[in-house]
Design goal:
Blueprint: E1 9-11, E2 20-22, H1 25-34, E3 42-46, E4 52-60, E5 63-71, E6 81-87, H2 91-103, E7 108-113, H3 126-140, E8 147-148, E9 152-153, H4 154-160, E10 165-175, H5 178-181, E11 185-190, H6 198-206, E12 210-213, H7 221-242
Parallel strand pairs: 1-3, 6-7, 6-11, 7-8, 7-9, 10-11, 10-12
Antiparallel strand pairs: 2-5, 3-4, 4-5
Helix pairs in contact: 2-3, 2-7
């Protein structure tokens, strides 16, 4: 069987009602020299407003002009809001966690400074992480862009953050109940290598965080993130099929 040719997806923060879009120099360079897209090839353009459409590439003096045509209808339903709060660890692993968070449907991603975080200032990484979010969204087929918050200390975050269902993942926690996984607004908080210290856990417990476990073993931060998000995704899939 002949494999269907891949159609590249490009994110553009524009309204897709117009028939034509002239790309910036940087985007033109990416389309022509990074993605190696040729004149008259078809690509997919999407924004953060639930719109996606096919577009034909035209090259005019090394600048790309996109001729927008057929709108693509998405059947993806993202009724569940998932916020993932992660203690800042090794930068390569943070890249991986952010990428997988996009793929696994996270709505909000909040990097947290904790007592055992490996860094106390990563503001210079925000531009890089935002690009990681965009590229992961283009690759995985999402239409919405995951919200990436500025890093904040655990104490400041916990004093202002509100969610209907807040869960701290810890090996000594309780197992999830089905009704907890049914919530339409879930927040997961995952600690660094070495975990949260006792004072942090006591403060979180006092502020309404429920301590939960997803495995009998102690998981690395990146493993815990992927495992917890997979649990939520699989529960949603099973729930829809059982209706």
């Amino acid at each position: 069987m002949k494999q269907q040719k891949k159609i590249h997806r490009i994110y553009l923060a524009i309204d897709l009602k117009s028939d034509m879009h002239r790309c910036s120099v940087d985007l033109s360079h990416r389309i022509l020299n990074v993605l190696r897209i040729k004149n008259n090839e078809t690509i997919s353009i999407f924004n953060n407003k639930g719109q996606e459409c096919l577009s034909r590439v035209s090259i005019e003096e090394k600048q790309v002009v996109l001729n927008l045509s057929k709108e693509i209808k998405s059947g993806i339903d993202r009724s569940k809001k998932i916020s993932l709060c992660v203690s800042i660890i090794n930068m390569k692993l943070m890249d991986l966690i952010i990428q997988k968070s996009v793929e696994l449907g996270v709505t909000n991603f909040i990097p947290i400074y904790t007592q055992r975080s490996q860094y106390n200032n990563v503001d210079k990484k925000l531009d890089h992480w935002e690009k990681t979010v965009i590229h992961a969204t283009e690759q995985c087929g999402r239409l919405d862009i995951m919200n990436l918050s500025r890093p904040v200390s655990l104490s400041d975050f916990d004093n202002v953050y509100q969610s209907s269902s807040k869960f701290l993942l810890h090996q000594n926690g309780d197992k999830f109940k089905y009704e907890e996984l049914e919530s339409s607004d879930i927040t997961l908080l995952i600690g660094p290598e070495g975990g949260f210290d006792d004072l942090e856990i006591d403060c979180l417990d006092a502020n309404g965080w429920k301590t939960k476990t997803i495995n009998v073993n102690i998981l690395r931060t990146e493993t815990a993130c992927i495992s917890a998000l997979t649990l939520l995704n699989n529960y949603d899939i099973l729930s829809r099929h059982s209706l």
